[in-house]
Amino acid sequence: MNAEIIAVGSELLLGQINNTNARYLSAQLAGIGVNVYYHTVVGDNPDRVKKALEIADKRSELIIFTGGLGPTKDDLTKETIAKHLGVELAMDEDAMSSIEAYFSRNNRVMTVNNKKQALVLKGSQVLKNDNGMAPGMLYSKDSHHYMLLPGPPFEMEPMFAAYGIPAIMAKMEQQAKIVSRVLRFFGIGEAALETRLEDLIESQSNPTIAPLASESEVTIRLTAMHESEAAAISLIDEMEAKIMERVGHHLYGYDDTSLMLELSKLLKAKGMTVAAAESLTGGMFQQEMTSLPGASGLFKGGVVCYTNEAKINMLQVKKETIDEHGAVSEQCARELAENAARLLGADIGISFTGVAGPDELEGHPAGTVFIGIHMNGKPARVEKLLLSGSRGINRTRAVKYGCHLLINSLKG
């Protein structure tokens, strides 16, 4: 089944909000074997919505609309589609009852125009809205399927997950088992990874291989279809083995994990604790670590030592170290890591010092970063990075590199 997503809303075209619905729907549809070939955004104008629908009819079997189901005059998605399909709009009593209950719970008076939200395409499968008022719906005609979903993501996403996906799968000719696995890589760019896997990507069929760059990382989604779930898993295992032969040393985890989560798992498994000294990252490492449940058993504490005075007075970096080598140096990173572990009583100390940018510092260009790691009482080792990006990107990448270095150190 080939799909197209049409987002309705002038606010999207004006750049007032991002079209996160299309991204979410595409990812979910890929997971059930539906190909999304087109994304369309159209304003709140019936003629333009009609033209977008006419184009979609010629090239897509499943057309999903988001937005335009509300109570106001510019919410016209249902009316436009109904006219295009020659279908009447009918009141859905369950939806009307739900809307009335919503106003009653919130002690608000329901205006007449809110009844419009309970109108659905006559003969459609109604999709319940558990987080709002306007229901969704799926209407089928000939070989086409039209799904209408509300625009707010907090309504649309749970509706689609609970009711939309099962409704679509019931319409699919092949009821194959679909299995997906996400491989997460760090320390290799998207272009480099694709180059090493080029022949596998070009010849892909089942499973499919979908690389994606995201926040200084690269992921690959493997998706296989088969009548047997076990067979689908076997197909993914075979493809993963081929990928691992080429870029396996960059793999750090699967599916919805993160570098910090993988680090916390290793720390917990080994019964070790960590302390941090952060200069250019300004506490980002500590913020990420303490956002995880159970961090109190893994993280002893940390210091944001942004100035030289803080490095000297709070973390006991020798003044002569900074005078001779500078704050952006291997020597300073080493002392910061060792002293953080000692002063806070941790098994591991990690430090971040460098130049976030945009200007150079102490003769070092923006993106110069030193990460120190002190573990088990041994002298700290220091990794020097030369990053290229904005100030924010360099800080984010530095934290990710720190996590990755700790993971590799703990794995031995």
Account of the 3D structure:
By secondary structure, the protein is of the alpha/beta class. Helices cover 42% and strands 25% of the residues. The chain has 15 helices and 17 strands. The strands form four sheets. It has a six-stranded mixed β-sheet with strand order 2-1-3-8-7-6, sandwiched between helices. A five-stranded mixed β-sheet has the order 14-13-15-16-17, with helices on both faces. It has a four-stranded antiparallel β-sheet with strand order 10-11-9-12, with helices on one face. A hairpin with a 2-residue loop joins strand 10 (208-214) and strand 11. The radius of gyration is 27 Å and the shape is elongated. The model has no long low-confidence stretch (mean pLDDT 94).
What secondary-structure arrangement, pairings included, does this model have?
Blueprint: E1 2-8, H1 10-13, H2 20-30, E2 35-42, H3 46-59, E3 62-66, H4 77-85, E4 89-91, H5 93-105, E5 119-121, E6 125-127, E7 136-141, E8 144-149, H6 153-171, E9 177-185, H7 190-196, H8 198-202, E10 208-214, E11 217-226, H9 229-247, E12 251-254, H10 259-270, E13 274-278, H11 284-290, E14 299-304, H12 308-315, H13 319-325, H14 330-344, E15 348-354, E16 368-375, E17 381-386, H15 391-411
Parallel strand pairs: 1-2, 1-3, 3-8, 13-14, 13-15
Antiparallel strand pairs: 4-5, 6-7, 7-8, 9-11, 9-12, 10-11, 15-16, 16-17
Helix pairs in contact: 2-6, 3-4, 10-15
